[in-house]
């Protein structure tokens, strides 16, 4: 389904590139993880962002609302990316090309969301900018002071998931991939910092997680699995597999909000 016959790739070169991506992203992520509260340039970068945009916020209700509320809807954030994926799937299948990028995207996005949530839940607590009294920032119109109160800020799981998807698109089409990265940077990442929900360093960390998982970890995992298990799928099971793929993409479009709600419910239940 997602990995079809095609011209044999240079496995050794691909593996080395994927390992290099994993190594570089992991080192950068670890640096951010260890230094977000103590490294001077990271603190200065975050403060510079809020100092700059404090001059712009609350100047226009329409602009603030567009950035803070409209751009933060799942329809604006993720659905255009899913549209690119669907187009690529049909176009590549029509051309008889491998759909391996879709497998990497599915695995990478799942890893990115999981890793970012684990880091956010189990690392040291970082208050959101709008809840941090040391951050001098005039919040824009349309954001409430109590938004995401009690939720740690680092890293941004939204950024991680969106950049993981954009990376998968880039693997299939450079032009669409560049457009996807620009979309994620402008429509997904920037509004979260503008709204005071994240520091820029949170969003950069999320981007590194997305790149790490889709371009580095996912192909290594799939290659390792393919070398050990020879899986052939009967054609009669294809409708089921595509249905599962559609349901997973639906969750991507909803930013896994339902899944996270179920998880929070189970977490509360298991406490008793």
TrEMBL record:
The keyword Transmembrane applies. Pfam families: PAP2. Residues 104-218 form the Phosphatidic acid phosphatase type 2/haloperoxidase domain. The chain crosses the membrane at residues 19-36, 74-92, 98-118, 176-197, 203-225, 237-256. It comes from the Bacteria. Keywords: Membrane, Transmembrane, Transmembrane helix. The keyword Membrane applies. SMART domains: acidPPc. This is Undecaprenyl-diphosphatase. It comes from Paracoccus tibetensis. The lineage of its organism: Bacteria, Pseudomonadati, Pseudomonadota, Alphaproteobacteria, Rhodobacterales.
């Amino acid at each position: 389904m997602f990995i079809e016959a095609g011209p044999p790739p240079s496995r050794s070169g691909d593996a080395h590139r994927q390992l290099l991506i994993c190594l570089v992203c992991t080192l950068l992520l670890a640096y951010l993880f260890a230094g977000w509260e103590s490294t001077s340039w990271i603190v200065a970068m975050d403060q510079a962002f809020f100092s700059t945009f404090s001059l712009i916020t609350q100047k226009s209700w329409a602009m603030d609302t567009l950035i803070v509320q409209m751009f933060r809807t799942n329809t604006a954030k993720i659905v255009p990316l899913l549209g690119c994926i669907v187009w690529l799937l049909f176009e590549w299948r029509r051309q008889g090309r491998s759909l391996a990028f879709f497998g990497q995207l599915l695995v990478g996005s799942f890893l990115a969301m999981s890793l970012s949530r684990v880091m956010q839940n189990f690392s040291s607590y970082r208050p959101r900018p709008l809840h941090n009294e040391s951050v001098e920032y005039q919040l824009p119109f349309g954001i409430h002071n109590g938004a995401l109160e009690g939720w740690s800020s680092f890293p941004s799981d939204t950024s991680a998931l969106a950049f993981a998807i954009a990376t998968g698109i880039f693997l299939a089409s450079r032009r669409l991939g560049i457009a996807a990265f620009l979309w994620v940077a402008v429509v997904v990442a920037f509004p979260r910092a503008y709204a005071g929900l994240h520091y820029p360093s949170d969003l950069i960390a999320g981007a590194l997680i997305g790149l790490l998982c889709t371009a580095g970890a996912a192909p290594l995992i799939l290659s390792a699995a393919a070398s050990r298990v020879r899986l052939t799928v009967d054609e009669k099971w294809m409708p089921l597999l595509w249905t599962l793929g559609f349901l997973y993409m639906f969750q991507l479009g909803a930013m896994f909000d339902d899944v996270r709600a179920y998880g929070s419910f189970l977490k509360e239940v298991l406490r008793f």
